[in-house]
Amino acid sequence: MNLKPLSDHLIVKPIIKKETTTSGIVLPDTADQGKTEQGEVVAVGPGRVLDNGTRLEMPVKVGDKVVFKKYAPEEIKVDGVEYFVLAEHDLLAIAS
Length: 96
Hints:
Number of helices: 0
Strand order of the largest sheet: 8-9-1-4-7-10
Helix content: under 10%
Mean pLDDT: 87
Oligomer: single chain
């Protein structure tokens, strides 16, 4: 299935970091109490339409790594892969 976000929304694949304790023990994903706040953009909507009818271009592009608000994304699964759907205003930064 191919996802095409609408308006100022984007599809992000979460980046899952492996956590390791100072003694070298790798914590499994199930031990993570919070949600990830980083991901890679896989699809971008065309942008929001302003009141004057012009379209505001999205500040991110496919392949960008982004940081977003912790509880902002809607989670979806497509073909067994987890994705997040975010609005542009939920983005905090583009990571380099």
